[in-house]
Structures are given as structure tokens and as C-alpha cells.
Amino acid sequence: MLKKIFTGLLLSLALLIVAALAAYLYYWRPALAPIDPPAATAFPPQVVERGRILAGMGNCAACHTAKGGAEYAGGHGLATPFGTIYATNITPDRQTGIGRWSQAAFQRAMREGVGRDGAHLYPVFPYTHFNLVSDDDLAALYAYFMTRPPVYAAAPANSVPFPLNLRPLQAGWKLLFFKPASYQLNPAQGLDWNRGRYLAEGLAHCAACHTPRNALGAELAGSSYLGAAIDHWYAPALTSANTAPLPWTQDELYAFLRTGATSLHGVAAGPMSAVVHEGMGASPDSDIRALSVYFAGVAGAEQRQVDTDTVVKAGIKRSQRVSLVDNDRGASLYVAACASCHSNSDGKPAALRPELSLNSAVSAPDPANLIQVILHGLSKDEAMPGVLMPGFAASLTDNDVAQLAAYLRRSRSHQPAWTNLEAAVARARAGK
């Protein structure tokens, strides 16, 4: 019996090795010859400017800029279940950046996830989305990055353990989860919808945050935009599964993506704040409108019939009725810390002081966003002009924050109670 088991294990191992070798050979790519960096004047100014706007849509700086470091010089650590992976330098430095990369090498990295040296890139770099970007847009991005000031900055060593750090294994991952494709127009939809989908599923890579992943780090098939935990925050569902009291209509989506706030849903915070204000801030209104058209369709907003006035009035009525039954600690904390700003007196929700009964963070299936904002607040750099909320990390204990969040969930939404809140607060406090 032992001999049979041992033989079976050896056979399985051999099959795995053969499969890995076959995948590597299938995805093997040669190194591409280095170039001398072109002069900045070699790129037309209008193409460089277009690349700047596209880089914002892709939020490239968020990953490729370390805190306190030079823009696009890399070094920012991306935490994954497999270890920390550090974003690389994408300035035109000859030694540590992409200064010796040809446009063909840049395009291959974006489309296939392969470096100039032929090594497979980790899929934390979302080439699974960037492969949809057009040739013209990739050329504009290349022109923009190659005209940035070169910065000598080598990325720290990744902490991915052996054998997961072996680059050839990424070929096997690609065989399982990556299907290169170009963007195909949907003739049944309008121009705005197609433009929005092209941006959302390509360069903006929205699904990379808003889609749950499997044990190997790939987006779950058939679960696009169903919401996912990321970096101690929660990227909510963008489909009809979203639990917000009111649907995300085209106008609401446009307001949120353009300004960072909407009176009927709340304020962009955490990573989404950077996407809106630092990333898409330079994008033309037409692109923001296209994204809102596309995601309104994804959310099925037109099919969801809701009497907005009734929902708003009922929510404000709940907010005005603070319950102190049974000495509720959460209600007491709300009165002491929140009511002065969030109690509605005129019957109209306001974007600058969100109505919590309408707030997406309160109705979400994951309490992470509400906890983060209670702990750390919103700085003047994160939200809309005029929005500033203090954090209570220093004045409230984990139990206090948990009870306050539980009270808001119970009194301001019709969703099931969150569980293990105190542990969630501790994680958020440690992860900030």
C-alpha cells in the first residue's frame, strides 16, 4: 500500500513538473534588446499630455510611487497573501528604470506581463486588464513615462518565499488564468457605454479591486465587480448586489467620480479617494460620464425602481431618532462624537456632512470602510474641498469603535448585523 501511495505521489509530482515545463515553454519570451533613451523632444507634446491623462486614469502613481519618494520611481510595497511585492521604477533611468526599454518592450509588459529581460511579471501588476489597452494609448503612455525626470531608485527585494518567487511559475499562472485579448466594441451599446467599458476593464482596471479573488490570487470567474476586501478597506460591489439604500444612477456615479462625494451615497475615502482626486482628476468629463454610463448599466440602476424621496425622508427620520434604550453605549458615543455633524435638521441630505442612513459604508456587507473613517477620519487632502472629519483612534478604544459601528448599522440600515466587530477594529488599527 505504501509503495502504491509513494508511486502515486511521484507520478503526480512528475506530471506537475511536466505541466509547469510545458507552460513555461508555451509562455517563454526572449529578452528584448536595450535602447538608448530617446530625447524628450522626440515625443510630440500632445501625445505626452494624452499619456499624462491616461496614466491618471490608470492610477499608475498610486502603485509606482513610494510614500515620500519621487513620482513613478517605484518602491511602494504591495501586500499580497504571498508576500510583499514592490512596484518597480518606471522613470526613464537607464539602470533602475525603463530608460533602456523600447516601446515594444513596454507594450509587451503591458499586454503580456513580461519584462524587457523576458522574465514573467507577478500578476499584482494588472496586465490582465492592460492587455485591452489600444496601441495608440500604449504609445501615449510610453511617451509620457519616457519624458519624466529619470530617477535612480532600485526597488527593495520582494518578500515572496521560495518556490513562489520563481518567475517561471508565473507561466503556469498565466496558463490557468490569463487569456490575452483586445477590446471588442459591443455594437448593441452606445459610444459612451463602450468607452466606459474600455476604460473600466482596461486601463482603469476597476475589477482588480472590486472583484473577489481565488486562492491563487486570480479574479474569480463569473464574479466581476461583486466586491472585495483590499488593503484593510472594502471595495463595494458595483453590480445590483450593492447594498446601498439607493441605486447608483448615472448622475450619482458621475458626481462621485468627478467630485469624490454624493449626498445620496457618501464620500470617497482611502484608496478610492486617490483614484478620484489624484488619478482621474485630469480626465475629461466625457470619460467620467462614459464610466458612469457603463457602471450604471452594470449596477442595473434603470431596472431598480426606488422612490428616492421616500427613502431619504425615512432615513433622515431614523437619524433624528437616537435610541438610548438599555444604556446603549454606541448611541451614547454617537451623540457625543457624531451627532453635531451628522444629525440632519433641514430634511435634505448633504454631500459635505453625509446622511449616515444613506451612506454606503454603513450599509456595506463589510464594516472596514466605516471603521477606517471612524478611526482615522478624512483629511483635507482626501475628500472634497471643505470636508474634514477628525479621527477618533486616540480617543476611542476598539470596543468603543465596535459599539459605535454596531449602533450605526442597527439604527441606520436594514442590513444584517456585522459580526466580530472588535476584531475588525483591531485589524484596521494595526493595518493603517
From TrEMBL:
Pfam families (UniProt xref): Cytochrom_C, Cytochrome_CBB3
This protein's UniProt keywords: Cell membrane, Heme, Iron, Membrane, Metal-binding, Repeat, Signal
Main location: membrane
Entry's localization field: Cell membrane
Top-level taxon of the source organism: Bacteria
InterPro entries in alphabetical order: Cyt_c-like_dom (IPR009056), Cytochrome_c-type_DH (IPR051459), Membr-bd_ADH_cyt_c (IPR014353)
Domain Cytochrome c: 46-149, 191-299, 325-412
Protein name: C-type cytochrome
